[in-house]
């Protein structure tokens, strides 16, 4: 692939920006990659490991002359960063972001984008529980989805170029409306994270009673919960505070179902439990069969679904 953007600026140098830099280098997509992070320590690490071609000490200096600027900071920091870079953006440039929530990010960023600059929000559905400048790797986006969320009146060429960038970094892309994105992600990512955080908290409370047993004998299912619950606290605080309505809607439904299952256990209603688990098993099997038919990429790393 030839160079897509002569100069790319990455703001916030953590897991996603680091992986983007390495994936762009792998495919030769950027003439130059410039980086900026708020803390001097992160900038120092990024320089030391050669994460970008150049690291600047202010966000405005990093975006000056850039053809593509990608905001890779926690969702709650998007507004302040956009305000800082707005006046320094080059006419004709594209600003994108990788935030896990889309409606709130659009509302936070769009007012700071000057006339003549394109704003094309995006969200790669790929991550790990690790964060910071040393956590990125070039393969993170391979065979994963990246959702592109164009705002009303978005320039089609600019949208297509961002789609090409993600495809060349290894992802499959789809377009989605911001509100729909936030509801879908509340089901598939946000509520599951909150449930994992809760379950690990419950186990921790129990652990105080039973010593180290909870960890020592933890089965694979619980270990998966602990992996998810080790994710970055700032990132997830911001996700929940910025996708309130959709997350609360899904958690409300979750609680209703949980109460129904709780009641079935208490009253010994085995038929209810069996029917419920049969239905959920069929859903999982249906997903796997559909994927084999369409050869679509899976939700998990590699071929694990
Ligand atoms: N981790 C995931 O699984 C994942 C997946 C997809 C999208 N996202 C989204 O990507 C974004 C970045 O996540 P990450 O996992 O790379 O996080 P990270 O914690 O690894 O990196 C975030 C970086 O932003 C910097 N930062 C924080 N506030 C800043 C500010 N005000 N100005 C400048 N820099 C600032 C931090 O120092 C850090 O370098 C978030 O919006 C997150 O919702 C994360
Ligand atoms: O695999 C993980 O660790 C993730 O949690 C990644 C995950 C997800 O829920 O799938 C987390 C947040 C993102 O916005 C996108 C992807």
Describe this structure in words.
By secondary structure, the chain is of the alpha/beta class. The chain folds into two domains: 172 residues, Rossmann fold, CATH 3.40.50.720; 89 residues, 6-phosphogluconate dehydrogenase C-terminal like domain (6-phosphogluconate dehydrogenase C-terminal fold). The protein has twelve helices and nine strands. Strands 3-2-1-4-5-6 form a six-stranded parallel β-sheet, sandwiched between helices. It has a three-stranded mixed β-sheet with strand order 7-8-9, covered by helices on one side. The protein binds nicotinamide-adenine-dinucleotide (NAD) and prephenic acid. Prephenic acid binds next to loops.
The CATH homologous superfamily of the largest domain is named NAD(P)-binding Rossmann-like Domain
Q: What's the pLDDT, averaged over the residues?
A: 93
CATH fold label of the largest domain: Rossmann fold
Kindly report how far apart the N and C termini lie. Answer: 30 Å
Query: Quick one: CATH class of the largest domain?
Result: Alpha Beta
CATH architecture of the largest domain: 3-Layer(aba) Sandwich
Q: Number of helix segments? A: 12
Largest β sheet strand count, sense and barrel closure: 6 strands, parallel
What small molecules accompany the polymer chains? nicotinamide-adenine-dinucleotide, prephenic acid
- For the largest sheet, list the strands in their spatial order: 3-2-1-4-5-6
**Structural domain count:** 2
Question: Could you give the count of β-strands?
Answer: 9
What overall form do the CA principal axes indicate?
globular
Order of helices and strands: EHEHEHEHEHEEEHEHHHHHH
Protein name: Prephenate/arogenate dehydrogenase family protein
Organism: Roseovarius pelagicus
Domain Prephenate/arogenate dehydrogenase: 6-295
Keywords: Oxidoreductase
């Amino acid at each position: 692939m030839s160079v897509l953007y002569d100069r790319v600026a990455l703001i916030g140098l953590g897991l996603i920006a680091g992986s983007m830099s390495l994936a762009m280098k792998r495919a030769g997509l950027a003439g130059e990659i410039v980086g900026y992070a708020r803390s001097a320590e992160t900038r120092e690490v990024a320089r030391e490991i050669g994460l970008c071609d150049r690291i600047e000490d202010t966000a405005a200096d990093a975006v000056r002359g850039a053809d593509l600027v990608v905001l890779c900071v926690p969702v709650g920091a998007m507004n302040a960063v956009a305000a800082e870079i707005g006046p320094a953006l080059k006419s004709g440039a594209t600003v994108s972001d990788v935030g896990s929530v889309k409606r709130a990010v659009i509302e936070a960023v769009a007012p700071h984008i000057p006339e003549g600059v394109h704003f094309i929000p995006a969200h790669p559905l790929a991550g790990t529980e690790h964060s910071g400048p040393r956590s990125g790797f070039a393969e993170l986006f391979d065979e994963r989805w990246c959702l592109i969320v164009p705002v009303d009146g978005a320039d089609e060429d600019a949208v297509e170029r961002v789609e090409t960038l993600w495809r060349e970094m290894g992802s499959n892309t789809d377009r989605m409306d911001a509100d729909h994105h936030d509801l879908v992600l509340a089901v598939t990512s946000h509520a599951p994270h909150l449930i994992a955080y809760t379950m690990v908290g419950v186990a921790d409370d129990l652990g105080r009673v039973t010593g180290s047993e909870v960890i020592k004998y933890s089965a694979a299912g619980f270990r998966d919960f602990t992996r998810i619950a080790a994710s970055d606290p700032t990132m997830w605080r911001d996700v929940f505070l910025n996708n309130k309505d959709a997350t609360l809607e899904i958690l409300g439904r979750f609680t209703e179902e949980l109460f129904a299952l709780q009641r079935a256990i208490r009253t010994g209603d085995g038929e209810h439990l069996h029917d419920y688990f049969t239905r959920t098993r069929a859903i999982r099997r249906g997903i796997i069969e559909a994927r084999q038919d369409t050869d679509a990429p899976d939700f998990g790393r590699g071929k694990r679904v």
